[in-house]
Amino acid sequence: MSRPTDATRRNPATGERYAPHLEPRYREIATFLRAPLVERLDALDIALVGIPFDGGVSNRPGARLGPREMRNQSSLMRSIHHVTRQDPFAQASIADIGDVRFSSIYDLERVSDDIAAHYRALHQAGVIPLSAGGDHSVTYPILRGLAADAPVGLIHIDAHTDTWDAFQGSKFHHGGPFRLACEAGLIDPKRTVQIGIRGAQNTAQGWDYSDASGMRVVFMEEVEALGIEAVIAEARRIVGDGPVYLSFDIDSVDPAFAPGTGTPEVGGLTSLQALQLVRGFRGLPLVGADVVEVAPPFDPTGNTALLGATLMYELLCLLAERCAAQAEPK
């Protein structure tokens, strides 16, 4: 069982306890997956966190609005998984703790420091973060907060390797978080797999860096040739049994299903493949996860944010199951 929690709120009129995620979906404040909104960490197993920042994009902004719209769309989520029959809210203490706050939104290095400090506090409190970006530059400081003591493995699902060097004079951009993380010793490149990579580039620098450092790059053509189950098996082989972080860039999904992103690349995963891929990592010792690059201005239908929220639910199931397994008596 999870730790005791004060995250379950009380009805102010009756004093009775009630869970927001079981209320009618049009009620309550829009939080991630209808979890309670709390400020304290001492009762939590898993914290749902927003990072409304897109100052690291190289072209089209909009991902700063991703957390808010994913909160809105996650009001459509329910609790019990249709395949696993798992209820993450029954397995762990879960709450939305709001957004990371920034001391200087126009200073990229200070933004990185703010995010790192936020996640360092979560890590020290023993709370596992599930985050919604924001652009992909935010994953580097997340890892700074979670992996300062020892490198972790990485499952990175994306259209791009995000291992490029400095862009326009800055290293804090959404095309370089995993190069920075590798150089800082935050991830083990031999325990890193990048899935769904595709799209033409003006330089091979990112692909070459991933390859030279020892990362396993699974281009989309190989995903199609192998099939999702074989890709899952390969990824699990690479990351092994050690701690691992999972980062999901929504542009790994074909823009036919997820047009609301800053750098769309045709020929990607279907929505179903994306869900199956994430679900295939049950049982791994995840230290955290994120869904990034949802840019609502490029998708007036809201479907991209809905997919992002659904992926957050799938990831929450993985994290909650892990918490429950750790809490069981040996």
TrEMBL record:
Region called Disordered, residue ranges: 1-20
Named cofactor requirement(s): Mn(2+)
Manganese recorded as keyword: yes
Binding site for Mn(2+): H136, D158, H160, D162, D249, D251
Keyword Hydrolase recorded: yes
Keywords: Hydrolase, Manganese, Metal-binding
GO annotation (BP), single: putrescine biosynthetic process from arginine, via agmatine
Co-factor: note: Binds 2 manganese ions per subunit.
Any GO MF annotation of the entry: metal ion binding
PROSITE patterns: ARGINASE_1, ARGINASE_2
Gene3D superfamilies per the UniProt record, alphabetical: Ureohydrolase domain
Similarity comment: Belongs to the arginase family. Agmatinase subfamily.
Name of the featured protein: Agmatinase
Naturally occurring in which organism (per UniProt): Franzmannia pantelleriensis
